[in-house]
Amino acid sequence: MTVNRIRVVVLGSPRSGKSAVVVRYLTKRYIGEYSSTGDFLYQHRVAFDGAVSEVEILDTSNCAIRGCLAEHVRWGDAFAVVYSVCERRSFLAAAELLSLLERTRLPGCAAVTLLGNKRDLEHAREVHAEEGQELSLRFGCQFYEVSAAESCAGAALAFHALLREARALALLLPAPRRKLAAYSVSKVIGTIFGKNSKSVRKKRPSLSI
Ligand SMILES: Nc1nc2c(ncn2[C@@H]2O[C@H](COP(=O)(O)OP(=O)(O)OP(=O)(O)O)[C@@H](O)[C@H]2O)c(=O)[nH]1
Q1: Chain Cα centroid distance, residue 76
Q2: Do residues 40 and 188 make contact, with C-beta atoms less than 8 angstroms apart?
Q3: How big is the CA angle at 24 (ends 23 and 30), to the nearest 5 degrees?
Q4: Do 7 and 76 touch, CB atoms closer than 8 A?
Q5: Which of 79, 155, 205, 208 is the right S-S partner for 25, CB 3.0 to 4.6 Å?
Q6: CA-to-CA distance for 69 and 100, rounded, in angstroms?
Q7: What is the ipTM of this complex?
């Protein structure tokens, strides 16, 4: 069975729910508060369409401020750009990120999804679903509204679709990946769940779509 590797970078404004969405997808759990101290790299193995992919998901934190955005963009094969439907500023930031991806990656060479998170907070909504849809059409990317707090279905659907597109692109465009000379991210999934969560830290999540 073929095994390939897909690198996913999760970008978005602080507090938009990047970690919550990623953790929901990987563990089906929602724990409410997540560490914001740095980037987290998760690894898991996923089987779909008769092949297995080694997926690395980089949950970024404050990368615009830390100046590592360009590195992240070079590193990834696929991108999830997250905003909060309750915060227009995060939507505008998502539009900027999509524009950056378009400028720095060859069009059509990376799988991209736009995620409007916190859809459970309808009373506080500042961004309509139609606006997310329009933005995604403008940049030719996928779009989902999700709620990491409410269910795992949206996050799972969105990530599965992103991985499918990334795998399809890898088959179509087997261009050599540009490696980063000195790229370091910490594999610290354990710190999110605390010292007793060895099952998450030691066992790499694996699922079949
Ligand atoms: N109501 C609601 N709250 C959410 C949802 N997703 C995340 N949150 C909350 O929003 C806050 C920020 O979530 P994080 O996942 O830490 O956001 P982040 O984008 O990773 O934040 P940084 O690491 O600071 O960039 C936390 O208090 C979460 O509990 C959601 O879908 N609904």
Answers
A1: 10
A2: yes
A3: 90
A4: yes
A5: 155
A6: 10
A7: 0.99
